[in-house]
Amino acid sequence: MNGGLSFSHLILQASFLAQVILALLLLASILSWAVILTKRSLLARAKRNAADFESRFWSGGTLGDLYTTMTRNREPEEGVAAIFKAGYEEFARQQGLGGRTEPEDALAAVQRQMRVAQVREVERLEGGLSMLATVASASPYVGLFGTVWGIMSAFIAIGNVKQASLAMVAPGIAEALIATAMGLFAAIPAMIAFNFLSRAVDQLETRYHTFSEEMIGIVDRGLRGHGAKA
């Protein structure tokens, strides 16, 4: 490709609207990559923390010992740890009532607190995924709009001259197609990452739910006076 049809030259010589569209698509691509990298790191850490905490949870100590260790060490309250903390604190509160609450009602209170904590953790993991979905779905149409506008401008320019040549038409068509390429450049990684990250969030949500159900079984035995061994 010669210098007259280089990408940089076409972008610099493009109309103001075309430059705005390309800038928006470039910004969308940068933001989506920032979300992708951030979420990938967050989900990997959440998966690792869940495995570590579950290993400690099933190590054989009591729930009280585990809670005390978490509090004393000021451990981060994320993922499974946050769900456990919410459930144990409500469990301890119910036990402190001295049996004035029926076990079924106390268990329901613990379940509510754990469910709220689980929803909050899942929402934290899902943050930013909607932006990826928006970029994946909207970018091709934004690029297509730029392409249609560029082709319209090229044909209008052809209509204003008596003789049209390929050299006259090519820059306008190339400028229009750059918008489509930029739209796909922003959309494809966002779509792939959205599917991958959504599946990872679903897996963690299932893991959180399974942990909650297992802990509820232990809490149920504790509320009925059979101890609270993990």
| Percent helix range | over 70%
Which secondary-structure class do the elements indicate?
Answer: mainly alpha
- From the spread of the alpha carbons, the general shape counts as rod-shaped
The biggest beta sheet is recorded as: none
Provide the gyration radius in Å. 28 Å
Average pLDDT, rounded to a whole number, is: 85
Q: Could you give the count of β-strands?
A: 0
Q: Report strand %.
A: under 5%
Number of helices: 7
Please mark out the parts with pLDDT under 50 across 5 or more consecutive residues, or reply none: 226-230
The string of secondary-structure elements, in order, is: HHHHHHH
**How many separate domains make up the residues?**
1
**N→C terminal distance:** 69 Å
Could you describe the 3D structure shown?
The protein has 230 residues and is mainly alpha-helical. The chain has one domain. Helix content is 83%, strand content 0%. It is built from seven helices and no strands. α2 packs antiparallel against α6 and α2 packs parallel to α7. It is rod-shaped, with a radius of gyration of 28 Å.
